[in-house]
Amino acid sequence: MKISTKGRYALRVMVDLASREEGVYTPLRDVAERQGVTVKYLEQIIPLLHRAGYLKSFRGNAGGYRLSKAPANYTVGDILRTAEGSLAPIACLDAEENDCERREICCTLPFWTGLNKVINDYVDGVTLADLLEDWKAHSGDRYAI
């Protein structure tokens, strides 16, 4: 499993917005500037997060984006799955039920199943609030997520 730039940037956008004052809309160009990402690239990611209900948007002069819920209510796993799709290390574990014709005789399936569980337990055990807290503790006065 390799997380693409889409997944990494989606997570950075969410942490960036989590670091803003609650309830205040942030223009996408401000997020892009802070994160060193083009607005055009973020315009491909933001709709995914918005459709998932993670962001609220507001048009106009004071417009932009903000989180729909408190940072503690978002897991890294939810955000990465929204941007990337399944985080399963192999294709036969993508669906809820493994329909691989070799599942009954596959000697490596227990390993892949265990790895899948470790990945999901880890990403689902870390929230935006956790990332924000860690970032604040290690960044001092610097601002780069």
Describe this entry's structure for a reader.
The chain is mostly helical and 145 residues long. The protein has a domain of 95 residues: Winged helix-like DNA-binding domain superfamily/Winged helix DNA-binding domain (Arc Repressor Mutant, subunit A), CATH 1.10.10.10. A two-stranded antiparallel sheet has the order 1-2. Strand 1 and strand 2 form a beta hairpin. The relative contact order is 0.17. The mean pLDDT is 92.
Task: List the topology elements.
Layout: H1 5-18, H2 28-35, H3 39-51, E1 55-58, E2 64-67, H4 76-84, H5 109-124, H6 128-139
Antiparallel strand pairs: 1-2
Helix pairs in contact: 1-2, 1-3, 1-4, 1-6, 4-5
Gist of the model:
The chain is mainly α and 145 residues long. It contains six helices and two strands; from the N terminus they run H-H-H-E-E-H-H-H.
